[in-house]
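Q: Sequence in, structure out?
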Amino acid sequence: FYVNIHSEANPSGELRAQLVNEAAAYFVAPLSGASEVPARRTGASGMVILEVNSSGVTGTGSAMNLSSPVATDIAGGAHIHRGYAGQNGPVIQVLGLNPDNGIFTAGNNRFAITEGWGDTLRMRRHYVNVHTENNPMGEVRGQLLPLATTYFTASLSGQNEVQPVASGGLGGLKLELTGNQLALTGAFSNLTGDFDAMVAGGSHLHIGAPGENGGLDITLTPTLAPDLKSGIYTAGDNTYELTEDQVATLRAGNNYFNLHTTEYASGELRSQVLPEINFFPSDEAAITSPADGAALTIQGDPNTPFAPQWDVATDRDQLAYIWQLSATDDFSAILVNQNVGDSQVFETTFGVVDLLLQTAGVGLNESITLYHRALASDGSVATPGASASVTLTRGVVTGTAIVDKENLQMKAFPTVTRQRVNVRLQSSQPYGGQLLLRNANGQALDIRPVQLTVGTTDEQIDVHQLPAGIYYLQLVIEGQLIGTQPVIVE
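A: Exactly. Output:
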């Protein structure tokens, strides 16, 4: 049985509590695919409650809407594992889950507790995992946490950075809010760079919505592995008293976690901090233009808009969109990976597309088939919409304006940097153009419009999120490549 309190704003229930036996302590595991490592898109969810007494532990709960039958051949299909949020660990206790109805009954889930087991539980280092035939590594998972007013979750990845970074790192966090006290626990691993404590401590909660970069709010305290590639967050080191404004920001979904490394100084792993249970956004962000199978000739006026568009996706939380252009239909060869915030369009020009094609080795009157899609992201997990293929033929792009190349100059300084590059543009007349930043493989990392005035125009490009290497700044005006400037990021 459970108690449910309904309100006008939440007619299905705003407050709920399970009726359980009296115990010395309770631990709750909200089950979701977002808590798996890595996060898994599923409509399944659930909850497990542990009643802890000196005589032992009793577990109850359920899992619902699983995508396939419970994998009972994997030691019954449900277990308690050892590991922080963001870690995968060994089974330490088999749970009794009825595969027909997804219920954990008290009669099938009573077991003894040892002193060490209880200590690990209080450290938030146990999680429940339910394995299914479609997802043998786990379809829904939940960290066992002490009772709190509100639970929050974060799934860490480089794809959540603004702009996205190519990192194999991953991790997860759980946050417990009780009154104005916040406890944070979790883990991260497999960083590309070393954790960089020189960046104001190395990891923080920031203020900002998905697709936005914002100011630092709370500096966190991890316990790092010797190689600086992984670490954990314990409640003992990461419990904070929040102000009313900080509580309001957290509840509004306007905090995000960010972790800084020597390779990605502005952030290698990021996630929005969102209320449990978090589901993936819908898959409705389908490409509408250029539609699947479209054929376009990139020719004529270089300022002709090239603006892929997609449908809006739905989610409980705020959404941002990431537009991806790939040379392959499985999106394993990404050419452009751009977070556009809450916009449903990626805006550039024929002149920029022509330069992309030229760099990719596409000659005049030659064609190439590319693939594009939009990811709908709540800042923690993302869902791709239906992709579309587009065949682009490279025609002759000619500007209507005469570009005075001899009186156009681009100078980037410093050419060896770790933080940012200053770009000074000098022109004898006003022009509209684009600045592109590419890596050595030709992938466009940043495409931004610039408006040149008569005289000097200054731009600044932040590169401290990039791994060390050689990059290329390019200025395009009226579809013409004006200059290329190499930049070395240390």
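Residues 387 and 393 are 20 Å apart (CA to CA).
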